[in-house]
Amino acid sequence: MVASHVIDAIGAAPVGMPASDTYTSLQRGVIDGLAFTWQPIQAFKLDELLSHHTNIPFYNSTFVITMNKDKYNSLPDDLKKVIDDNSGVELSKRIARVFDKSNEAAMAAARDKGDTMIDIPDPLNDANWKEPLLEGTQRYLEELEGLGLDGEAVYEKAKEASIACKV
């Protein structure tokens, strides 16, 4: 995962764990921080323990809803239509709006609480973050290459899609 490589590149030790374990791990001092989007901070009540936040728009998680193709094909046309009418790009946009609203509310709550917020709006042009971000990305791409995957090609397409989505 890119985030763990970036964490390593800044001199910290990444620790993978289920999100459900982060509260007790923070509480007990097993971890000193975490790399999360905003919504889980409230959902897992981490806002009770956290008071400092660094916002870096560098990566995003991907959520996928899938269905077994054979099962889909076995459905009558009217049920396929229900699924088709309630999935795809439009569903993705609706879900994204829900996540964005939830993330904005969690961030606002942290600000209202008086938490320290450090915003890095353009991390690839920030002297402190550029190198660790590039190093972390490169290490991840090399891992993919080691698995026989063309990570560089996928990365380039992802960058193009990101630019296209900003329009």
From TrEMBL:
Ion transport keyword on record: no
GO biological process: transmembrane transport
Keywords, in A-Z order: Signal
Gene3D superfamilies in alphabetical order: Bacterial extracellular solute-binding protein, family 7
Pfam families in UniProt: DctP
InterPro entries assigned to the protein according to its UniProt record, in alphabetical order: DctP_fam, TRAP_DctP_sf
Superkingdom of origin organism: Bacteria
PANTHER family from the UniProt entry: BLL6794 PROTEIN, PTHR33376
The name this protein goes by in its record: C4-dicarboxylate-binding periplasmic protein
Source organism (scientific name): Psychrobacter pasteurii
